[in-house]
Amino acid sequence: MVLELNALIANTTFGHVFRCTDTTTGVEYAVKQYTQECYEVSAELQVSKALMQQAPHPHLVQLVGQYERNCCKHLVFEYCAQGDLYELLTDKPMLPRNQSLMYFRQIVSGVHHLHKIGYAHRDISLENILVDANGDCKLCDFGLAASTSELSDATVGKVFYMAPEVFAGEEYNPAAADVWSLGILFFILMTGVPMLNTPSDDDGGYRIVARQGVKALIKLWNMENQFTKTQLQLLDRMLQVNPKKRIKMHQLHAKIQPKVSWRSKWAQWF
């Protein structure tokens, strides 16, 4: 593989991401450059190598190589031509309903697989979901991933998506925290707006969710017509403030699989 630098895609806390082309094949890749040693590069490599031992998952970005140059570590990933979901929603905040549901199902599939091999993502957000040339979602950026078998007290991730126990600095189950983040993501995909500024009593929306449930907040905001009854029930199970009451990842994955109706050849969404 001989890579030619094409363009800077993004600046990150610990380096840069470039779009590159393999001059021998013409295939494009995303190269993440780490300018310093840090937990994030170690976690990214650990998770990516674990994924490489499995069959490639269609909704998780795959590592294809690594190298060091100028004292910097470079990780080579598959390239997703349409960018991230944050950019897509900035241009078009309200996606067609079936597209939002398809994206969510794909993201849940990726997170479910990640949990099955023993890792929680801990930074699920629009910015960390890429869309490839075929219009399919791929979860990326495993730099904050942690074992699902151990409790954590690290306050990590983006505040908009952060579970309340993570924001509070309490010891938490990383897998349960991912489920909360998926609930926030689902709300954004279906409504085009964020749900909370912070998952704490300083936020009026959060106070309603904590005391009355997410259905009460959606009713207050006159958004009931943007969700089916089944979708509201599932959202409520994802956004339980008490992590022990949240739906488990394997249950969520099973709930949202499309079912083919006997009335139609088309798959029916939950």
From TrEMBL:
GO terms for molecular function: ATP binding; protein serine/threonine kinase activity. Residues 3-260 form the Protein kinase domain. Gene3D superfamilies: Transferase(Phosphotransferase) domain 1. Keywords: ATP-binding, Kinase, Nucleotide-binding, Serine/threonine-protein kinase, Transferase. GO terms for cellular component: nucleus. It comes from the Eukaryota. InterPro entries: Kinase-like_dom_sf, Prot_kinase_dom. Pfam families: Pkinase. This is Kinase. It comes from Thraustotheca clavata. The lineage of its organism: Eukaryota, Sar, Stramenopiles, Oomycota, Saprolegniomycetes.
